[in-house]
Amino acid sequence: MLKVYNTMTGRKEEFLPLKRGKVGMYVCGVTVYDECHLGHARTYVAFDAIRRYLEYKGLEVNYVQNFTDVDDKIINKAREESRKGGADLPILIKGIVKKYTGEYFACMDKLNVKKATCYPKATECIPEMIEIIKRLIEKGYGYEVDGNVHFSVKSFNEYGKLSRRNLDECSHKTRVALEEQKRNPMDFALWKKRKEEPLWDSPWGKGRPGWHIECSAMSMKYLGESFDIHAGGEDLIFPHHENEIAQSEGYSNKNLARYWLHTGFVTLRQEKMSKSSGNFFTVREVLDKYPPVAVRFFLLSTHYRKLIEVSEEHLEAAKRATERIAACLSNVKKKGMGLSRSMQPTSNRIAIESAMDDDFNIPVAMGIIFKLVSNVNVLTKNEDFVRAAVLAADIESFCNVLGLKFRADEEIEEELLSLIREREQFRQRKLWEEADVLRQTLLSKGITLEDTPRGTQWRRL
Ligand SMILES: [Zn+2]
């Protein structure tokens, strides 16, 4: 039985989708105005692995992830560029959105994150947002003041149910409220009156939608008024997801999502990684130094709800761990052993699945995998390749579920291959000293050689 931790109830619950065999899943996407940092990658890699596991269990996942392409951060960046003598603001905004959407896909492709079923953009769903706001005003949840529309948190009885906050906690915001003509300091914007581009016509005059209404409109448009999983980073619980709930449920009188899943923070030097603090590693700079499979492994090796501390040391350890798995699989395959998966579930597979069924406990499942790697290495050494191949099949199949793609054998670098050939020639000409120098060179590059009557065989360390 699959159990997932639901932020809404604070408990692990049995996962029961609304429609048998199908899962509707919405993950809050990025605001496209800058490069992705490792905090973003953690969230999207974690939910990608969760999606892959649900698919492995035979569920059909409709995975929707938005792009926020209208936001003050994007507009401010465009203004900066325009002050430097760039083109018109709308053109600059388009350029920024295009550039960083491309950047997002480039990084996620490298990290082997599967494409979502669809990627709605906020600017393509403005009519849907206006419809929701109209209904919210009719039902007494929203109110207009001078072209701005706010959501009245007092009108929604369950406000605070996700983040477990009560409204009285935030009275210090009164001054802000007065400035923005809000009835309550906690009220938030559904529609913002604006005089400058980008803006849209609405029943309340020209303006832009608030950030939270974007996700309400996009999730309901593609997944319906009620769906299974709503996910995002932990920092979105309040106010973003709380406000989404108030808007969507105020609008539809239905529960928006059955399960709310959140990833933990990523820290660097013990501080939360965030763009605003300047304390971050971009995905690109990490991928310049480490193989993508190692970065993906690193992000998955801590449980998705727990905090990850990033350091060179941890990334190095992840790199070594993935090399160990890759070498183990490659050594079995090089003996011509196909890793055919048996139809009967092995005891290892059952143990791995029971870890994953417990709120996607990848670290526990990885522990089982590394025990298997040790066993396979012993069997390979003892030339018991038949038994090694059976265990290796379990390793490979679980790594596939997690989206960990290892370099195939035949992908050995041409440079290394030519060194192996060169040494083989020295050996045939009985030039032992020269052959030995090359053996040492290859060893320093992680390749060990074995001279057999059938010729030289290589394997990765
Ligand atoms: Zn969102």
Describe this structure in a few short sentences.
The protein is α/β, with parallel strands linked by helices.
Overview of the structural elements:
The protein starts with a strand and ends with a strand. The chain folds into three domains: 21-272, HUPs (Rossmann fold, 3-Layer(aba) Sandwich), CATH 3.40.50; 323-409, Anticodon-binding domain of a subclass of class I aminoacyl-tRNA synthetases (Four Helix Bundle (Hemerythrin (Met), subunit A), Up-down Bundle), CATH 1.20.120; 412-460, no CATH class. A hairpin with a 4-residue loop joins strand 1 (3-6) and strand 2 (11-14). By secondary structure, the protein is of the alpha/beta class. The strands form five sheets. Strands 4-3-9-10 form a four-stranded parallel sheet, with helices on both faces. Helices cover 47% and strands 15% of the residues. Residues 28, 215, 240 line the site of zinc ion. Zinc ion (ZN) binds next to loops. Residues 351-416 form the Cysteinyl-tRNA synthetase class Ia DALR domain. Keywords: Aminoacyl-tRNA synthetase, ATP-binding, Cytoplasm, Ligase, Metal-binding, Nucleotide-binding, Protein biosynthesis, Zinc. It is found in: Cytoplasm. Monomer.
